[in-house]
């Protein structure tokens, strides 16, 4: 083999090594794009992303944001203010978030109370009922969209430390006038609708 051929061979080998080195560098760079950087500097950006997501989680309704309105009517949820002797009133409430953003509010039976009065006398209070087993129920109150509770029938009886339902003393009827108030999670209804028992 002549000297010229040796030089050509050496140059080709050097060129092959350079090409090989370039290919290795290229493969390494592409793989790092898919596996991600192990650089600790990248970690804070992940924490910022998590914090940003938490900002959009709903918060509890601020004090004074929720209003409660009491209602009396039929078990089907139709308002009524007068009842025949054979009819029993149903009572319920509506909770409204008066703010500009949705928020969380507890409307569970454990924190819901009704009171029925006539004049200065309290005839019935759900606080006298058996409240064991009642639970909380936190819901999303959408801004300015009233949430209507399920109506509950009142049996036209007095409540006492012995209970609030069947077997209790009947209240006066024959045109007697009553008022109902609701309280939910510490918020008392601003109204007290009147109804008459005939």
3D structure, described in words:
The chain is α+β, with helices and mostly antiparallel strands and 198 residues long. Helix content is 23%, strand content 29%. The protein folds into 2 domains: 3-55; 66-197, Immunoglobulins (Immunoglobulin-like, Sandwich). The chain has helices at residues 3-35, 43-55; strands spanning 66-73, 82-83, 90-97, 103-106, 112-118, 121-125, 138-141, 147-148, 152-153, 176-184, 187-188, 194-197. The strands form 3 sheets. Strands 2, 5, 6, 10, 11 and 12 form a 6-stranded mixed beta sheet that branches. Strands 1, 3, 8 and 9 form a 4-stranded antiparallel beta sheet that branches. A hairpin with a 2-residue loop joins strand 5 and strand 6.
Task: Give the secondary structure arrangement, pairings included.
Blueprint: H1 3-35, H2 43-55, E1 66-73, E2 82-83, E3 90-97, E4 103-106, E5 112-118, E6 121-125, E7 138-141, E8 147-148, E9 152-153, E10 176-184, E11 187-188, E12 194-197
Parallel strand pairs: 2-12
Antiparallel strand pairs: 1-3, 3-8, 3-9, 4-7, 5-6, 5-10, 10-11, 10-12
Distance between the termini: 126 Å
CATH architecture of the largest domain: Sandwich
Strand content bin: 25-35%
Please report the total strand number as a whole number: 12
Low-confidence stretches: 30-55
Broad structural category: alpha+beta
Share of helix, binned: 10-25%
Q: How would a crystallographer describe the biggest sheet? A: 6 strands, mixed
Radius of gyration, whole Å: 36 Å
Q: What's the CATH class label of the largest domain?
A: Mainly Beta
Number of domains: 2
SSE order in H/E notation?
HHEEEEEEEEEEEE
Number of helices: 2
Shape: rod-shaped
Q: Which whole number gives the mean pLDDT? A: 84
